Amino acid sequence: MPLQMKLTAITLDCPTPEALVVFYRQATGLELHPKSNRDFAGLNCDDGLFIGFQRVDDYQAPHWPDQTVPQQFHLDFEVDDLDEAEALLLALGAAKPEYQPGGDRWRVLTDPAGHLFCLTRREV
After folding, report:
1. What's the angle, vertex CA 103, arms to CA 66 and CA 87, rounded to 5?
2. What does pTM read for this prediction?
3. C-alpha 102: how far from its chain's center?
4. Residue 47 phi, psi (nearest 5)
5. Three state DSSP letters for the chain
6. CA-to-CA distance for 22 and 17, rounded, in angstroms?
7. pLDDT the model gives residue 42
8. pLDDT per residue as tens digits for the range 35-45
9. How many CA atoms within 13 Å lie on the side-chain side of 50?
10. pLDDT tens-place string over residues 74-92
11. What mean pLDDT do residues 90-96 have?
């Protein structure tokens, strides 16, 4: 029988946790963890998942699609409208890499610290 594990937290390295938590809070509407500070900040999801952001000295953002600094992971978010979500996220400080392998199916963006994340259209 496989071990039964429940994912409870995802933590991203970054240069400025307080800035990255603001970006993801505005993008998702998640609640700020009350003990967030300049070295470690987080967001609480309704299902109990915690998304954390920890300060790392000499942080190097991933390079996309170049792998000189690999992405190591990425987050996927479902949205109703790809164009609308992309515009809002760009206004919040996200960036859109030139390389977009998803065509009309998904969009690749980077958060203000350079982490890759994808937007996918919510299936109705």
Report:
1. 90
2. 0.83
3. 18
4. -85, 5
5. CCCCCCCCEEEEEECCHHHHHHHHHHHHCCEECCCCCCCEEEEECCCCCEEEEEECCCCCCCCCCCCCCCCCCCEEEEECCHHHHHHHHHHHCCECCCCCCCCCCEEEEECCCCCEEEEEECCC
6. 9
7. 97
8. 999 999 999 99
9. 13
10. 888 999 999 999 999 999 9
11. 96
- Where b means 16+ CB within 10 Å and e means fewer, 5-30 reads eeeeeeebbbbbbebbbbbbbebeeb
- Cβ atoms within 10 A of the Cβ of 57, count? 5
Amino acid making up residue 7 = L
Q: CA 61 → CA 68, 76, 81, distances in Å?
A: 10, 18, 27
Query: How far apart (Å, rounded) are the C-alpha atoms in residues 122 and 73?
Result: 21
Q: How far apart are CA 99 and CA 80, in angstroms?
A: 22
For tokens 């970054």, name the residue. Answer: 14
Report d(CA 76, CA 106) in Å as an integer.
9
